[in-house]
Amino acid sequence: MWIDTHAHLYDLDTDSYNACISEAADAGVYGMIDTATSLDNASIVAARACPEKRIFAAVGVSPFVAAELADGWRSKLEALLSLPGVIAAGETGLDGSNPCYPSMPLQEAAFKAHIEAAAKKNLPIVIHSRGAEKRAIDMCKSYRVTHAVFHCYTGSLPDLKHLLDCGWHVSFSGIITFKNNPLAELVDFAPLDRILIETDTPYLAPVPHRGQPNRPAWLPIIGTALAGQKKIPVEKAAEQIALNMHEVFGI
Ligand SMILES: [Zn+2]
Asked: Is the alpha carbon torsion for 152, 155, 157, 158 positive or negative?
């Protein structure tokens, strides 16, 4: 039994969305966190959140749109964070991997606004960090973030050590199923009680589905790969990850 801690389902129409949820349930994925990347899709994921069915929402604006934020976006974010079933602020963060992305000062301003809004509501933050892990960690430290997940982590081992030392969690995606798992060293290092897993649907489908749009139903493939890498029974991995979910998100 698994929960997909990070999926993007807002582009699915109602029929495809319902099919996706029941396919996931049939595969043993009994819940998910539908994660927004813009204020528009944040409204969709917040409206679809249904805690009784273990469908939760994270609302936020990804660093890729940090240059397009209209006046008043912060109060919209705060209003969304108050809705039932919204359990985290994100995804938010910093991406320095491509010079075409919004400038770092713009990304940092948006990231800071999420950190402040989450602190007001006492919610964790879901962090996207690529090519800017150090800076993301420094910002979280300076604003005294207590609960955070570095989602789809692909950074360095020293940065992973640092974020774990700060008490935060790391989430691994289908990348850990790829041939010669490029994240093996990170998975080995991270203690099981600080790890979450995610599909990042529709991106990063696990082996043997690479190249197809990902789906939450494939999360057990990632959980099984994690358990294999950690040399523990799959049930133990699932059990501990459920406890970690509770620790970070209170669900
Ligand atoms: Zn994502």
From this structure: negative
Return residues with CB closer than 5 A to ligand 1 (ion): 200
**Residue 208, preceding peptide bond in cis (omega within 30° of 0):** yes
CA 139 – ligand 1 centroid, Å: 20
Q: Of the candidates 88, 90, 76, 73, which has an alpha carbon nearest to the alpha carbon of residue 122?
A: 88
101: its two tokens: 């992305």
pLDDT tens string, the chain, 251 residues long: the values are: 899 999 999 999 999 999 999 999 999 999 999 999 999 999 999 999 999 999 999 999 999 999 999 999 999 999 999 999 999 999 999 999 999 999 999 999 999 999 999 999 999 999 999 999 999 999 999 999 999 999 999 999 999 999 999 999 999 999 999 998 999 999 999 999 999 999 999 999 999 999 999 999 999 999 999 999 999 999 999 999 999 999 999 98
d(CA 119, CA 179): 39
Distance from the alpha carbon of residue 162 to the mean position of ligand 1, in angstroms: 22
pTM for the full predicted model = 0.95
- Distance from the CA of 13 to the center of ligand 1, in angstroms? 19
Ligand 1 centroid–CA 95 distance in Å is 12
Radius of gyration of the chain (CA): 17
From first CA to last CA, the distance across the chain in angstroms is 14
